Recover the amino acids of this structure.
C-alpha cells in the first residue's frame, strides 16, 4: 500500500509526458544510493548494499548511474548484477569509460560468454572500446560463425549503413507458408520478428517483406508470396549514416534492409539504430561547432585534450593578433571613444553569424537543403533576417548612444552625440552584415569543399567575423570622423 502511494506521488510530481524529469529523478535516487554504498572518505564498499541496488533496479538505469562511482568500484557493481542477461544490457548501455574499465578486469572466459549471447550488431560497436589485441583474442575464442559476423560487420566504415545494421533477422523464400514461418520463429525466440519478415526468391535476392501483423491475421496455410509487400526503400552497406537517417525519418520505416551489389539481403537497420545514430551525429555536430572532437574519456591525457582542441584555437589566436594590427592601424585616424564600442560590435555581429550558421547547419543535417529551390529560399530568408536584425539594432543602438552622450554625462560628454551615435549605429549595421554573410555562406563553402559544415559554425565564423566587422567598423568611424570632425 505504501509503495503504491509512493508511485502515485511520483506520478503526480513527474507527469507521464515529462520523461526527462522522471529519468532525471531516478538518476538522482540511484546516485544517492550508490554514494551511500560507497564511502569516499574511507574507500569502504558495502557489498550488501551494492548487491541490493543491483537487484532492485534495471541494469539500463544502473548503466547510466554507474558513472557516479569511482572507476575501481564500477566492476564491483557489475559483478553484483543478478544474471548474464543483465550484465549484457549493462555493458551495452553504459558509457565508454565504464566499458574500458570492465574489459580490463574481466577474464577472457567471462567475455566469451557475454559476447556469444550478445547480438552481433551490439557486439561490433561495443568492441570499439576494446584493444585490438584483446579483440583478436576474443574472436578466436567465441563461436566461429558469430566471430565471422562480427568481423564482417566491423569491416564497414564506422558511420555507414553496414555498421548500423543488425545481421540477425528473419528471411524466407516466398513459397513457405505462414505456418512454417511461425514454427521457425518460435524455435528462434532471441531474434525480434516485429521488425518484419523479409522475402527472398530462389536465388536469395530480396523481393519483399511481410509485416508481423500479417502473420497473425492470416491462415497458416497461406504462402508468403500472397501476403508480401514490395520493398520500396533499401540501401547498400556503403550508404552513409546521414542517408539512412534521411530515408528512415522521411518514410517512417521501422526496418530498412541493407543489400549488397547482387541485391542479397545482408542486414537490417531498425528505427532504434537510427535514433542512436542521430544522437551520435548530434554529439559530433555540437563538438565540431566548438572546435574539438566529439568524444572524450577520463583516460585521455591532458596533452591529448590539448592537441585535439588547439588547431582552431590557434586560428582564433592568429585572428586576434590580426585584430590588434587592425586597431593599431586606425588608432591615429579615429577618436579614442570609438574603441569603447568594439566589444559591442564584435559581440552582436558574432552572435548573428552563429545564429545564421547554426540554422544552416541544422537544415543541412536534416536534409532540408537538398533541393536547389529550398536551399535558395533558406539562404535568402537567413540573409533577410540578418539584414533586418542589423538594421533594427543598428538604428536602435545609434539612437540609444546618442541619448546617452547627450544626457548621460559620461566620459563621452565632450563628444558630438550625433557623430558617436552615427558611428556606432552604422558600424553595428555593417558588422551584422558581415556576420550574416559569414554565417550563411561559410557552411555552404565548407560542405562544397568536403569539410564538415559544423566546423565553420564556431571557430571560423568567430575568428573571421571579428576581423571583418572591426575593419568595417573602423572604416565607417574613420569616414564619419573625416567628414564631421575635420
Amino acid at each position: 500500500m505504501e509503495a503504491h502511494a509512493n508511485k502515485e506521488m511520483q506520478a503526480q510530481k513527474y507527469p507521464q509526458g515529462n520523461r526527462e524529469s522522471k529519468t532525471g529523478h531516478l538518476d538522482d535516487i540511484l546516485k544517492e544510493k550508490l554514494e551511500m554504498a560507497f564511502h569516499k572518505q574511507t574507500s569502504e564498499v558495502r557489498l550488501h548494499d551494492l548487491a541490493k541496488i543491483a537487484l532492485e533496479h534495471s541494469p539500463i538505469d544502473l548503466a547510466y548511474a554507474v558513472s557516479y562511482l569511482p572507476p575501481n568500484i564500477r566492476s564491483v557493481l557489475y559483478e553484483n548484477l543478478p544474471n548474464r542477461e543483465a550484465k549484457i544490457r549493462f555493458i551495452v548501455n553504459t558509457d565508454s569509460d565504464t566499458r574500458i574499465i570492465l574489459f580490463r578486469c574481466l577474464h577472457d572466459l567471462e567475455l566469451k560468454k557475454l559476447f556469444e549471447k550478445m547480438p552481433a550488431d551490439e557486439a561490433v560497436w561495443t568492441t570499439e572500446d576494446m584493444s585490438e589485441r584483446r579483440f583478436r583474442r576474443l574472436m578466436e575464442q567465441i563461436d566461429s560463425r558469430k566471430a565471422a559476423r562480427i568481423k564482417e560487420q566491423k569491416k564497414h566504415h564506422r558511420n555507414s549503413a553496414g555498421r548500423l545494421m543488425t545481421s540477425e533477422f528473419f528471411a524466407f523464400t516466398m513459397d513457405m507458408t505462414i505456418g512454417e514461418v511461425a514454427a521457425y520463429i518460435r524455435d528462434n525466440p532471441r531474434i525480434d520478428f516485429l521488425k518484419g519478415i523479409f522475402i527472398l526468391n530462389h536465388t536469395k535476392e530480396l523481393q519483399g517483406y511481410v509485416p508481423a501483423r500479417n502473420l497473425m491475421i492470416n491462415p497458416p496455410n497461406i504462402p508468403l508470396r500472397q501476403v508480401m509487400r514490395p520493398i520500396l526503400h533499401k540501401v547498400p552497406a556503403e550508404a552513409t549514416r546521414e542517408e539512412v537517417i534521411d530515408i528512415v525519418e522521411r518514410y517512417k520505416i521501422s526496418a530498412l534492409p541493407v543489400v549488397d551489389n547482387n541485391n542479397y539481403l545482408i542486414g537490417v537497420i531498425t528505427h532504434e539504430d537510427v535514433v542512436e545514430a542521430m544522437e551520435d551525429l548530434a554529439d559530433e555536430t555540437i563538438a565540431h561547432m566548438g572546435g574539438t572532437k566529439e568524444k572524450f574519456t577520463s583516460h585521455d591525457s591532458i596533452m591529448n585534450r590539448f592537441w585535439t582542441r588547439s588547431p582552431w584555437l590557434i586560428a582564433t589566436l592568429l585572428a586576434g593578433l590580426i585584430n590588434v594590427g587592425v586597431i593599431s592601424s586606425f588608432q591615429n585616424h579615429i577618436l579614442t571613444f570609438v574603441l569603447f564600442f568594439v566589444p559591442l560590435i564584435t559581440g552582436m555581429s558574432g552572435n548573428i553569424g552563429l545564429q545564421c550558421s547554426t540554422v544552416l547547419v541544422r537544415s543541412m543535417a536534416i536534409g532540408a537543403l537538398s533541393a536547389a529551390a529550398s536551399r535558395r529560399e533558406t539562404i535568402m530568408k537567413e540573409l533577410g533576417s540578418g539584414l533586418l536584425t542589423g538594421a533594427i539594432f543598428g538604428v536602435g543602438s545609434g539612437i540609444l548612444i546618442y541619448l546617452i552622450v547627450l544626457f548621460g554625462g559620461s566620459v563621452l560628454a565632450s563628444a558630438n552625440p550625433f557623430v558617436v551615435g552615427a558611428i556606432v549605429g552604422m558600424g553595428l549595421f555593417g558588422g551584422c552584415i558581415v556576420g550574416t554573410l559569414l554565417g550563411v555562406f561559410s557552411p555552404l563553402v565548407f560542405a562544397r569543399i568536403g569539410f564538415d559544415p559544423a566546423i565553420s559554425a564556431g571557430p571560423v565564423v568567430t575568428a573571421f567575423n571579428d576581423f571583418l566587422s572591426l575593419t568595417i567598423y573602423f572604416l565607417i568611424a574613420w569616414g564619419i570622423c573625416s567628414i564631421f570632425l575635420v
